[in-house]
């Protein structure tokens, strides 16, 4: 009987209707597929049980996180090759049992693949499938984007250890798209991004800046140090807040920068002269975005500026059918949602803000993610020690796949500058604001 890899390669071609463009290397040592192509290594047939039980992206992701599949060769190249037909077969986000029934019933109803399904079941081995890897998000009962559930979601992503984030992000501890120049470094690009934000906001000594989703405090520190402003930073992550406070104390800026563990909906002490929200709005959710925009409008002084830095997805024909990516939702950003740029701009304006500038930084995020992946791969042994093998694998897959998504224009990232005009309609922006001089 042929080895597992040739059988699986033939099965995949029959089910997909086209030859699989990658090599397969199976647990029994057999190989099949185009010579020289990157290889998908199936270390254990448990991976097949995961795919049969949860067809599509989540089953594949669980096998990856558990270490049951791996890549031999260029990860980016393999993801590019398989994205077109494996990722598009993702799930609808409901229960494992319901999804597995639909996947298996679809196979059973299609005469062309019934034989392939029987052979795959035989290769997969005894049922049931193993439980999901422990890195999968837990404890998300109740309505989405309540304050309690948002705290749980944020903790899953950010409270995994500041040392791990330092390894991935580098000394800047900035977890958002950098602003690159040709031949630049990650640290230089992150400094340039922080300064660009401060200049767009027109910061001057004595102003009050609110940093919504302040992370590890890098923007707050830069604004206080370089522009002489007083800063309040808010985050739901206790680990981030603790790290940020330590940095602020070390720089002697505790009288200028305050870091709070606080939901943006609970900030009581506006108005502020300027607000920055960088990489935070993706956590808000579609049903809460209008409220988010209204809260920021209320917290902003008339004539003040808002800088909203946010990842966007491409519009789809049926927006009501948009579903959150299964892998990202289960392992990376629980309850995170992306919206098209046009919808974000519309909601900001519906809340009373005037959008004055949109800066598209899509290619910059691809460069940033590739730099983070290099950091992770160079420090792999330390990353595994600091978190877990599964968590490190989540991050490697997530960041590499995201880099490709930015490069291929499946997602983008934009800095939207908006103002709360004065009662008589003044924006208090210069006539040529893109000089960003104040």
UniProtKB/TrEMBL annotation:
Gene3D superfamilies: Vaccinia Virus protein VP39
SUPFAM superfamilies recorded: S-adenosyl-L-methionine-dependent methyltransferases
One GO BP annotation of this record: methylation
Gene Ontology MF, one: methyltransferase activity
UniProt-listed InterPro entries: CFA/CMAS, CMAS, MeTfrase_dom, SAM-dependent_MTases_sf
Stretches assigned to the Polyketide synthase-like methyltransferase domain: 164-418
Family: Belongs to the CFA/CMAS family.
Record protein name field: Cyclopropane-fatty-acyl-phospholipid synthase family protein
Organism whose genome encodes this protein: Streptomyces hazeniae
